[in-house]
Amino acid sequence: MTMARYAPHLRATLALGLPLVGSHLARMAIGVADTVMVGWYGVEELAALVIATSFFHIMFFLGMGFGIGVMGLIAAAIARDDEIEVRRSTRMALWLSILFALLAMPPLWFSEPILLAIGQKPEVAALAQDYLRIAGFGLLPVLCGLTLNSYLAAMERAQVVLWITLAGLPVNVFLNWVLIFGNLGAPELGVRGAAIASVSVQALQLVLLVAYAGWLPAARKYHLFQRFWRADWAEFRAVFWLGLPIGLTMVAEGGLFVGSNVMMGWIGTRELAAHGIALQLASITFMLHLGMSNAATIRAGQAKGLGDATLMRDGAIAVTAVSFVIAVIAVAVFVLFPRQLVGLYLDSSDPETPVLIGIATGLMFYAALFQLTDAMQVIGLGLLRGVQDTRVPMIIAAISYWLVGMPIAYGLAFVAGLGPAGLWLGLVAGLTVAAILLMRRFWRGLARGDWTRDGHAV
């Protein structure tokens, strides 16, 4: 193996992956801005935001499978020059995204009883529902935007997605400043102000994505929005059965982290707030790997469309190597600068800050532990989605996160008495098992020739 052999794949992966990484980081930055600014407002409000966004993300994870699932389909169709399939799959993914967003509103609206039933403190549950009753209206633009992101990224127009996402960040920060704290004569809305800011930005970003997708000369041949109301039930079912396992996989993984939030809430409000900070820092590095995972999906989809096993293998090696390097850098940063990173989220004048820094700094060591396995599991998922293999990964995720990760987290935290550290060790265990099983499935399938034969994965 020579560097010259992989250089074109590394260049292609970085050209495609870096804008996707930037888009995910910019999207994450909006969430970070909410967390930081609500953290300045109050500890109780920060705890409510952590649990509310966890609830929102469970619904988002379940619905995002349709938008993510079509990424590999679109890439394969473009590689085959199949214009009709590009239009059909993207349009029906948009239909499914809209339908799911509408069905998800009732549980978001009536979230307080659910949060109380899972052991959250009444004052935190009430504030969380206030947030979710507004934030729920952002689910539709977020899911539809995700589908259009996949559509444009598969056409290698990820740079535009990056700029549109970046444009939302200063708008979100400004609206947070006005609405959370009541500046410029606006009412002081706290967590509700953060929700209004987020929904406003999400709607703006969707409008820009729709406008660009409709204008783009290279995309006009697909006629995506022409007679958008026309049903295509065969493709609707195909995208549904491809995307549903992805959504359930995301819920299984996201549920592990949401479960850790819920159990941390049982330990205490301070611990939950500190946990939210450490978890969001870990999530920032995950966005880097997620961008590379999207690139892996597109590259694997292109190779599948062309039936080229060598292209698939070399592309997979390149994207895995890039993600590995990112993980090593993240480990070094988390181990060397934990207090500085945690301190960015907190008001130094708040008397609660030293306690929160102490708790969150301890958790950063465990965040460093799972960087490599988190990277490998999401790259494995991206490669398998590119070859339209989604059902077995769903089972792998359920086993890894709910039969391994969650019981270990509970046992170490509450039975063994390790508290917050035990919860994080459970996260490490679940992610490690998932990484091993997902990577094993992709490489064994590639060796057998499963991923480059006609049709869906076997």
Automatic annotation (TrEMBL):
Decide whether keyword Transmembrane is in the record.
Answer: yes
Q: Where in the cell is it found?
A: Cell inner membrane
Give the residue spans that cross the bilayer: 55-80, 92-111, 131-153, 160-182, 194-218, 239-260, 272-295, 316-337, 357-383, 395-415, 421-439
Q: Which CDD domains match?
A: MATE_NorM_like
Coiled-coil segments: none
Give the matching Pfam families. MatE (PF01554)
Specify the superkingdom: Bacteria
- Topology in the lipid bilayer: Multi-pass membrane protein
Q: Does the keyword Transport apply?
A: yes
The protein's UniProt keywords, in alphabetical order, are: Antiport, Cell membrane, Ion transport, Membrane, Transmembrane, Transmembrane helix, Transport
Show the InterPro entries listed in the entry: MATE_fam (IPR002528), MATE_MdtK (IPR050222), MdtK-like (IPR048279)
Q: Which PANTHER family match?
A: FMN_FAD EXPORTER YEEO-RELATED, MULTIDRUG RESISTANCE PROTEIN NORM-RELATED
User: This protein is called what?
Assistant: Multidrug-efflux transporter
Q: Organism source for this protein?
A: Paracoccus mangrovi
